[in-house]
Specification:
The longest helix has 21 residues. It is globular, with a radius of gyration of 24 Å. It folds into two domains: 268 residues, Serine Threonine Protein Phosphatase 5, Tetratricopeptide repeat (Alpha Horseshoe), CATH 1.25.40; 118 residues, Tetratricopeptide repeat domain (Serine Threonine Protein Phosphatase 5, Tetratricopeptide repeat). It has 505 residues and is an all-alpha fold. A hairpin with a 2-residue loop joins strand 1 and strand 2. Helix 2 packs parallel to helix 4. A two-stranded antiparallel sheet has the order 1-2.
Length: 505
Amino acid sequence: MLRFHLLKKNTLVCVLFFCVSECFASGLGYFKMTDSLLKAQEMMYQFRFTEAQKVVDNHRKNEVHNLAIDWLDEQLLFMQLVVTEDKQLYESKQFLWGQLFNRIQKKKINNAWYRMVLSDCYVHRGLVKIRFNELSSAASDFKSANKLLIENKTMFPSFLPDNKNSGLLQCLFSSVPEKYQFFAKILGFEGQMESGLKEMEEYIYSPLNYKEHVWLKFETVFAYALIQHHLHKNSQAAFETIDEYSKRMPNTMFVNYAKATLAGYAGKNDLVVAYLSVKYPYSYQPFYYTYYLLGLAKLRQLDTDAATHFEAYIKYYKGNNLKKSALRYISWIAVLQGQPKVAQQYYQRCITEGNALSEEDKQAQREAQEGLLWPVKLLQIRLSFDGKYYDKAWKLWQQVEVQQLGHIKHKLEHNYRKARLLQETNQSINAIKQYLLVVQEGKHLPYYYAAYSSVFIAQLYEERKDVKAAQLYYLMVKNEFKANQEYTQTINQKAKAGLKRLQVR
């Protein structure tokens, strides 16, 4: 749960000095959020980009020196690229992004919002560049953002909106994947996850509630909750964080997407379907990634109607990310429907369509190239487990006839799924024994089961406060399982995060 940070009296006075006034003026530039601009920001999070842009453009005519206009301009650009992932749109907007940076820099003013807005722009552009696999250029943008944030903290130490990006960068660079660590050190990146989380908490629970903070705080809450899940393995707390805070927010597509994402991690699959099935009474830019998420949530309910959502994602989404994964899931649906030939056809498409940059797509391509169809019952267990329907998964697991699982991969899946079910139903001692069996059987095979089993053994020992045993199995993840070719980045990142929690390098 979030820890409420009581602000000292002098800190609160400084915060109010910066934030009570709507207008911070100096020289040619100033920062002023209005009710109309706040409405435009809400439209943006409803994905009504054209309407929002019209409001912002109308304001610009009379408020040419208002930094808040440039901030919303850049936010609109960022959100459109995140929602569409349109490479052509991204390339066509490069010049506009450059213009925005120049326009903001010309308004250089001696107040905290100037560097906050500029750092926000660099973080946004860096995140988009990562999506389009421009990693070194993204790192340069993050470095520029970090420099501005450090400057702002020196000049305005009580300015809390900086904590969103400062905390985010701290957390991200506390768990840089092994293969990028050398590059991060060259650029001077270093971070402490706990410190980053505390920074974000301080802003989230501050008394700041003026117009400029409404959506900025929600972005911070969403980022904080994602970090709680991915790096702090606390999915329930992460969902509770976003669920509680969202009660004070307008009902927008972005808010429902955020809630659906964290609900999925927390095992509330039925809520994912509910959040992503909401109908809105206005026209908006479709967010095709939510089609993929809704398809996955329905598939975990063993609802074969999920195929329509995956097909729509493949047809309309302009990028290539997760297309291989979507095709793999349609292949699984064909297996559930007793159509092995159709399943193989989608595996073939999976090999040739999309790209294999994300771990989901890499795994989908590996599976498609292997061409080994799942036994129906085993697939039902896997999907029910992923949807956190543990009672159903247990019943299905008990129905499997092990002697009919001819391939070693399927036998490993069967044993691994038992271990996962034991862990999730709080039978930790038996879970560790079962995971050890999987480690023994799969250590020298190319499948992820043994390596992930070592991660879960370490986490179970960590929960039991057995630091030495936890260290042993986290280190095993780093040093053993050289044959594994699946989910390697995620597995290594989880091990690194675990060792950091235990303060082991």
